[in-house]
């Protein structure tokens, strides 16, 4: 098992100005497991309404990398932050 990961705390996830014209045609996910033990935690942050609300994205169909990955959210705010309602939670893949 690897002991690496990322914690994003007290920040904002918002679309770049150049992405805004494409928000209706492109999906954006909060996290995607690039490696088998991918880990990310999102705490006390603002998440704008362009992030897919209900799920994380798999890496690909033949190598989803979801079995040992861990993504969690806690006490986030914003239009797409209501998934866990203040409790530590994981979105499905």
From TrEMBL:
Give its localization: Secreted, Cell wall
Q: Primary place of residence?
A: secreted
Question: What is its pathway?
Answer: Glycan metabolism; pectin degradation; 2-dehydro-3-deoxy-D-gluconate from pectin: step 1/5
Q: Under the GO molecular function aspect, what terms does this record hold?
A: pectinesterase activity
Reply yes or no: does the keyword Acetylation apply. no
Q: Where is the Pectinesterase catalytic domain?
A: 3-84
For this UniProt record, give its keywords in alphabetical order, as a comma-separated list.
Aspartyl esterase, Cell wall, Hydrolase, Secreted
Quick check: keyword Cell membrane in the entry?
no
Q: Which GO terms describe its biological process?
A: cell wall modification; pectin catabolic process
Quote the protein name from its UniProt record. Answer: Pectinesterase catalytic domain-containing protein
Species in which this protein is naturally found: Trifolium subterraneum
């Amino acid at each position: 098992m690897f002991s690496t990961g990322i914690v994003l705390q007290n920040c904002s996830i918002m679309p770049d100005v150049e992405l805004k014209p494409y928000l209706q045609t492109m999906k954006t996910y909060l996290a995607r497991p690039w490696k088998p033990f991918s880990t990310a935690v999102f705490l006390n942050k603002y998440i704008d309404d362009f992030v897919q609300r209900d799920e994380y994205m798999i890496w690909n169909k033949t190598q989803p990398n979801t079995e040992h990955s861990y993504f969690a959210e806690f006490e986030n705010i914003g239009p797409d932050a209501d998934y866990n309602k203040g409790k530590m939670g994981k979105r499905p893949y």
